[in-house]
Amino acid sequence: MNKRVVSMLLTAAMAVSLTASVAVYAVCPAQFAVGWGDTNDAFDPLTVEGAITFEEMRELCGDIPASDAEFSIAGNIRTEDNVYWTALRDGYKDMVTFLNEKGLAGVSIDVQSALNEADTEGQVAIMKDQIRSEADIIMISPISTSNCTEGVENAHNDDIACIAVNNEFNGADMFVGPNSYEEGVQAGEWAAANVKSGKAVIIMGLAGTDVVKNRTEGFKAGLEGSEIEVLDQQNADWDRDTAKDVCATFLKTYDDLKVIFCNNDVMALGAVEAIKEAGLTLNEDIFVIGADGTDEAYESIKNGELSATISMFPYYEGMMASEVTTRIMLGQTMPKVIWTPSLAVDASNIENNDADLIGWTDPVIAE
């Protein structure tokens, strides 16, 4: 199965015209060099030509082919300590269960995780174990852009394609996930529309990662034309307690802060704690915006604390990635980049079902 898939990915190309009102996309295979991609380099999804949305992919590719083929998908997430990744994991598994129930009984999945988001060696060790267990294709969300390079080389030596989900990494053959720059833009636009003016700071994730750079710069771009001024930015390494301390320092350093944008919900919830301890009123004195769309962030919005989160709908992101991977294994050619949705969720739409917010429909299996 693997060598057949590799051949398809290397040689197939497809150009499909959608409708007169939709652009024409040249759908290209995952782009490998001689045999495979260069594990010393990571492509930037934001610069890849021909990137399309998940919904555009469905329109281009049509139904999932019916098949009695048997293949194993390996899922490798960062950690189960973060609810974003557990939601992604659940989406992976639930899509495969759905496909099994709809007649694709030969699809199976194994999802494992590192101990935490610092366990770079553990993640690559799990990847190697999945390769030895004869996985046919791997979906992986790496801790860094390079910690899984050795694992990717091992996978490629065994003709196993590696799909980056949510995070790009060295040697990935394609990317499925949200546009991290657009997430930042959406956060900035939310602040411009709802807060309108004042001083802002940014609490960033781990230094040196593309998602941090993209969300941070996107937020600033989203504020353009508004009367909100960004005064400072500081890393808190995705950690709640660190973000709480950074926020407390910001509150002491700058008078009358009005907006705090955090690169993820975990840090945003830490900022919320610091603001409450400082005796300020959330959503009046100061507004906090997160990113990810975790269950805890949703609850905080419902409780009138967190102002908004830029949700990437991790459960549905996992569903989409499993669907894309299955389509590849059944012979459909995918572009280099497929975007999954992101959207600002706040008090105005928090009671809506996520499926309704993104217009989710279950895939159709060809008869």
β-strand percent reads: 15-25%
What structural category characterises the helix and strand content?
alpha/beta
Query: Which spans have pLDDT < 50 for at least 5 consecutive residues?
Result: 1-35
What's the count of strands?
A: 15
Order of helices and strands: HEEEHEHEHEHEEHEHEHEHEHEHEEH
Physical arrangement of strands within the biggest beta sheet:
3-14-8-7-6-4-5
> Which value, in Å, is the CA radius of gyration?
21 Å
Enumerate how many helices there are, as a single number: 12
Shape: globular
Helicity, in percent? 25-40%
Summarize the main sheet: 7 strands, parallel
Distance between the termini: 22 Å
What number is the mean pLDDT? 88
Please provide a brief summary of the model.
Helix content is 39%, strand content 21%. With 367 residues, the chain is of the alpha/beta class. It is globular, with a radius of gyration of 21 Å.
